[in-house]
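Deliverable D4.2, example record:
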Amino acid sequence: MDKITQMEQIIAKIAEQYMASRKDKGITFHFIQDNSKKLYALFEMGFEGRIFFHACIFHVALQNEKVWIYQDTSAEGMAELLLQNGINEKEIVLGYFSPTYREVTDFAVA
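Output generated by the structure prediction step:
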């Protein structure tokens, strides 16, 4: 299996595990997986009492054989979940940080 296919499967697995862990909370999830454009996002929505909420849990993309994280509101941290699933820190880009700040992390700069 090539690296990109493996990364796609890991991202889908993380989304599935996240949704399963919160399925009993009355929350609706939308996992958007566009393998042709290499874009992935997980949204949740529902009601807390009378208040409606809608949130992006994560938004990632695959570029140059790296996982670019653009949004991450998961409690565990998308980078940590990717590491736990076998993706190397040099294959993960924290896209929500500036390139200058990325240089001082253990992750890839670009």
